[in-house]
Amino acid sequence: MELPKITPEDAIKVLNEALGCDHDAIKALIECRVSCNEELANHPTIQVRAYDPEGYKVGLLGILNGLFGSDKETGYGYISVDGDFSMKNDGRVVAEKINNFHLTDFSLIEKRSK
Fold first, then answer.
1. What angle do CA 104, 101, 73 make, to 5 degrees?
2. For residue 48, what are the contacts with CB-CB under 8 A and spacing of at least 6?
3. Which of 48, 72, 75, 80 is positioned for an S-S bond with 104, CB 3.0–4.6 A?
4. Residue of 52 and 112 predicted with greater confidence
5. Taking the model in full, what pTM does it have?
6. How many CA atoms lie within 13 A of 114 on its CB side?
7. What is the distance between the alpha carbons of residues 32 and 25, in angstroms, rounded to a whole number?
8. CA distances in angstroms from 113 to 44, 72, 74, 75, 110, listed in the order given
9. How far, in Å, CA of 8 to CA of 79, rounded?
């Protein structure tokens, strides 16, 4: 049996369909981050954020981007989300509204310092 080959564009299509079906559920999933250990935080493609003093946290978008890898020059994943976001005092990112998911435009991101 040959497994289907899924691209970032395929994932984005499904994410946008899900967003159209239930915006609130997808918004809650994107906002949700769970604690993880340093081994996961050091994974070469999964995107994890460090929160002081809580340690590391990972979310759905970080895992999805881990499936497809990251841009070597910026370190960012191929799937991005467009919406209205705010950062709370405790470091949490809260989505007021999610507009859509799309391919990351790497030309808009600063290159990592080497």
1. 15
2. 36, 40, 41, 56, 57, 58, 62
3. 80
4. 52
5. 0.84
6. 2
7. 11
8. 17, 11, 9, 10, 9
9. 7
